[in-house]
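Notes from hallway chat w/ T.B., transcribed later so I don't forget. T.B. wanted the structure written out for a chain they're using in a teaching module, and asked if we could keep both sequence and structure tokens in one place. Agreed to drop them here.
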Amino acid sequence: MKPKTPYQAFLIRLWPASRQGRVDCRVLLEEVASQERREFADLDSLFEYLRSQCDLFVALRAAGEGIESQ
């Protein structure tokens, strides 16, 4: 039996927030499995975090951690 490809599932919440007279979008990211929550000031910060998670998976795959593609 092949090992399963690890993955992370996230719930993303977005809401408007006023800061310094300007309305921005605030972001809350919750990892489904651990229920760990991270808050981000904007979408760019969220995307940077998600890119880092993808880079981690790619590095594990390149290191031969036994991850099979699906």
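Follow-up for T.B.: Helices lie at 43-62. Might be a good example for the class.
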